[in-house]
Design goal:
Blueprint: H1 3-29, H2 31-56, H3 62-95, H4 100-120, H5 125-132, H6 134-137, H7 142-153, H8 158-173, H9 177-183, H10 191-229, H11 235-245, H12 251-270, H13 275-310, H14 314-350, H15 355-360
């Protein structure tokens, strides 16, 4: 091996490394576009059963079925905005989430009331809390800051919303558009297997995302009923936020529990109710309703979705989500189930000769 061959090898390696760096830099710069495509992909998977129903059952033309489906999505979005924006605008102060000073003030007031209540019943809870250091470890200002950032971003999402809807329309209209783009990078001898895998992934993930909508809807209905029964202000907004947080596995329900607990208490403060005789009992009943909703979700909704949509055992899903959370944080927990499902389908199609693959993909 002479010096010329070595030099060419080094130059080739440097060229490949430079190309990888440039590609990664390019993907970093267009990350917003990648997010638009990902969101549009999810919307197209959710809308796919509607399009198929309109085409097969009602004999709609493909374009008309897609237009009707997109109009349904747009109508739903407009309905949500018309419902929530006025409520958030008019009731923001009573929610005590848009003003971090008001939020901290309410936290301190509730804390003092709880201490007084337990001291009246000869329970020294303040000393226990101080010893645990729980309050010092928790940054309450992060909650209103987080929600403020979400609300502040509403004004800058119009371009993103238009882009997502535009891409979603063509994903639904030309269902093979994305598939054909992916198949360009697949060798000819593996194209048929790849297409089978792609179609299977689309079917499973479509059912999964539709199942998630049902899961959120069930929680939203239960939360709304509980909050309305006990006269909590802004019940629909609170119920929707808490149900939506359930999309983040395991962490989301904990955050939504705190959110519902705090907003139920602050609702009583706004109504100038007595803490020990009205606010605390009412909040207790609300949290019992929250626990019932979570039990329904954990023992009915989630097992049904996982077993029927992605065909995975709940324990298997639990381990996957935990591992993804450790490796990639909250984002990993959200995308864990779709990514794991896609990997299982690909393994079944290309590596079905291995015993462990057969075991993992038995139900697919």
């Amino acid at each position: 091996m002479n010096s010329k061959i070595i030099a060419n090898g080094i130059l080739r390696a440097l060229g490949i490394l430079l190309a990888i760096v440039l590609i990664l830099f390019f993907l970093y710069k267009i990350q917003s576009v990648i997010v638009y495509i990902a969101v549009a992909g999810v919307i197209s998977l959710i809308g796919r059963p509607i399009v198929l129903f309109l085409r097969r059952k009602l004999k709609f033309k493909n374009t008309l079925a897609v237009v009707v489906t997109m109009l349904l999505f747009i109508g739903l979005l407009i309905g949500l905005l018309s419902l929530f924006i006025p409520l958030i605008k008019d009731q923001g102060k009573s929610l005590a989430l848009l003003n971090s000073e008001e939020f901290n003030k309410n936290i301190n007031y509730i804390y003092e009331q709880l201490i007084d209540y337990f001291e009246f019943n000869n329970i020294n809870i303040e000393e226990s809390i101080k010893k645990s250091g729980l309050l010092s470890k928790f940054d309450f200002s992060a909650i209103p800051s987080f929600l403020n950032s979400i609300i502040g971003g509403i004004g800058s999402i119009s371009i993103g919303l238009f882009s997502v809807l535009f891409i979603s329309f063509f994903f639904l209209k030309d269902s093979k558009l994305f598939e054909d783009g992916v198949m360009i990078f697949v060798p000819d001898n593996k194209e048929m297997r790849s297409k089978r895998s792609w179609n299977k992934i689309k079917d499973l993930l479509s059912r999964y995302f539709v199942g998630l909508i049902f899961q959120i809807s069930i929680l939203f209905i239960i939360y709304t009923i509980v909050l309305l029964v006990f006269g909590i202000q802004n019940a629909i907004v609170i119920a929707f936020l808490c149900a939506l947080l359930n999309l983040v596995p395991y962490v989301g329900p904990l955050v939504s529990a705190f959110l519902m607990l705090f907003l139920s208490m602050t609702s009583g403060l706004v109504q100038e109710l007595d803490f020990s005789t009205s606010i605390l009992p009412k909040t207790t009943y609300v949290m019992i309703g929250f626990i019932i909703a979570q039990l329904v979700d954990n023992f009915f909704s989630q097992p049904f979705i996982f077993s029927k949509s992605v065909k995975s055992h709940p324990l298997e899903i639990f381990l996957v989500i935990i591992i993804a959370g450790i490796l990639f944080g909250i984002v990993g927990m959200i995308v864990a189930v779709p990514a794991y499902t896609a990997i299982k389908v690909i393994l079944k199609e290309f590596l079905s000769d291995y015993k462990i693959v057969n075991k993992l993909t038995k139900g697919l």
